Known about the structure:
The chain is an alpha/beta fold and 323 residues long. It is elongated and about 85 Å long. Helix 3 packs across helix 4. It has 2 domains: 14-238, Rossmann fold, CATH 3.40.50.300; 244-303, Alpha-Beta Plaits, CATH 3.30.70. The chain contains 11 helices and 15 strands. Strands 7-8-9-4-10-11 form a 6-stranded mixed beta sheet, with helices on both faces. Strands 1, 2, 3, 5 and 6 form a 5-stranded antiparallel beta sheet that branches. The chain has helices at 57-64, 86-89, 108-117, 127-137, 153-164, 183-198, 210-216, 234-238, 252-262, 283-292, 307-315; strands spanning 17-28, 31-37, 40-42, 46-50, 72-77, 80-82, 93-96, 171-175, 202-207, 219-224, 227-233, 244-248, 265-270, 273-277, 299-303. 32% of the residues lie in helices and 26% in strands.
Amino acid sequence: MTELLPAQPASAPERDLAIATRGLTKRFGSRAAVDDLGLVVPRGSVYGFLGPNGSGKTTTIRMLLGLVRPSAGTSTLLGQSIPAGAQAALPHVGSLVEGPAFHPYLSGRANLQRLDAADLTADPRTSRQRVDAALDRVGLLATAGKRYRAYSLGMRQRLAIAAALLMPRELLVLDEPTNGLDPQGTREVRHLVASLASDGTTVFVSSHLLSEVEQMCTHLGVMSDGRLVAQGSTSEVRGGAAPTARILTDQPTEATRIMSELGLTGVEAMPGGVRGTPNGVAPEKIVAALVQGGVGVKEFTVTSPSLEDLFVALTGEGFDVSG
């Protein structure tokens, strides 16, 4: 059986974490949309919050931002308890939740100016500089005068991120930022996230696109049916699944016996040969035992599961691997 890395409770001091939750739960009637969640998001990380649609990702984000009150549990943003410390934390947090929404007949610049004017912490005397700096950061300064309705999907997503960056942010929370984008738009958002992270901003990004998460995230959390089923650095989560040894041979019965005697588990026939979990048995020892036992070895490989294989094993559901 494949062994998977379990989700871990918070162990680092919460001052070292951009986001931390303990027992965070949200029920709608008898259904738990989020159940006993323990997120650990280190400062400076790019944290990929993964799960199939309906697994509880957006509900979690809304609780983190104080938009939805939890049924149980606690959460902190940048060391501040939410919702009690929301006024202290949220000015340092930028967010994009459930897609951008702007006035279609206003330009990109005019939309951001309206948002900036609504921020009570923003100095109106420097509004133009902030808006232009945010537009420049996302590569939209040259098209700032263009009406929003004429923007492409990628441009709209980048404008939404610009809105989240009107003021300096320590934490950026992005809910499905590449949803509906073509490959070019997806790459634009990915490069922007990488740029923000290189400047020290913590980025918390929810997604169901494995290829994108794999390329840009340093840490992962995997949701399934409202529960966190795996969490840690990308290498830790990927390393939580056991490799598989595969042998191509015309003598599957004898190969199965020898591999089982060596201590491999889950040994079973496959088309053209046998496979099993090595459990630390060295590949050269497996091959030597097979040859000494008179088994003709046509090919021998040890492979680690792909990120898609891992998440299917964790959640029982497929993920979108397209970018």
